[in-house]
Amino acid sequence: MDRSSGRARNSGDLIATLSGRNPARNLHSDVLWEMGFAIVSGQYPQGSILPPDSELLDRFGVSRTVLREALKTLAAKGLIEARARIGTRVLPRGRWNLFDADVLAWHFELGPDIAFLRSLAEVRIGIEIEAAALAAERAEPDQAAILSEWVNKMAGAKTPADFARYDLEFHRAVAEASGNPFMASISALVEMALTAAFTISSPVNNSAALAETVNVHRRIAEAIRDRDPAAARAAMRDAISQGFERAAGRMEDGGSAA
Fold first, then answer.
1. Are 123 and 244 part of one and the same domain?
2. Is there a single domain that holds both residue 132 and residue 180?
3. Is 111 or 213 the better-scoring residue by pLDDT?
């Protein structure tokens, strides 16, 4: 496995850690990660034909079964397509499942750049503000109370990793309180956005940014508690926009995580 695939896998491990998952490590996953990252990074360009199985088997040193399973997984994610007598072709980016956690992690390892972060924020705004509004209409008292508990944990976070984990749990709780199971389907996208923010610029290291971030999440929790959908929408939009602007500003300044 080459160094770039190791970095991509580390990004996936970071996302899994923040979300509370234990990433599996085996031959299948290692081949999947290296090939997936190679496709997303352009080492295997869109529209190109992958090397023959014999070459890939020599490269990875795995069984044909392991390679085929990895290729099937990449196909399920929309990255490749096998054609009889032609070979396995890399599909156009428009066919890739950008909501998939692995595909997002491979993109994350490439930067992420400001355009990628903006796209994440735009999709989150399109979905999460409605999740907040539905939560304001449907949340049970205990669900509203849990949101306040996560805000309090965010306020007391001592490390960027803890803050990112509490932030993620807060947004998960909003999705659950919405009563709409489809809202939870963007969890991988939210994990990626928060991981990017954690990596680029955490509010924990800036007292003013921390106070601002905690305050806007408290506004969301209070609007849901008070059954005010309009206020919940506005506060959620502000929360997502603030996170993007903080990370984008840090990237424009040429800084790393701070």
1. yes
2. yes
3. 213
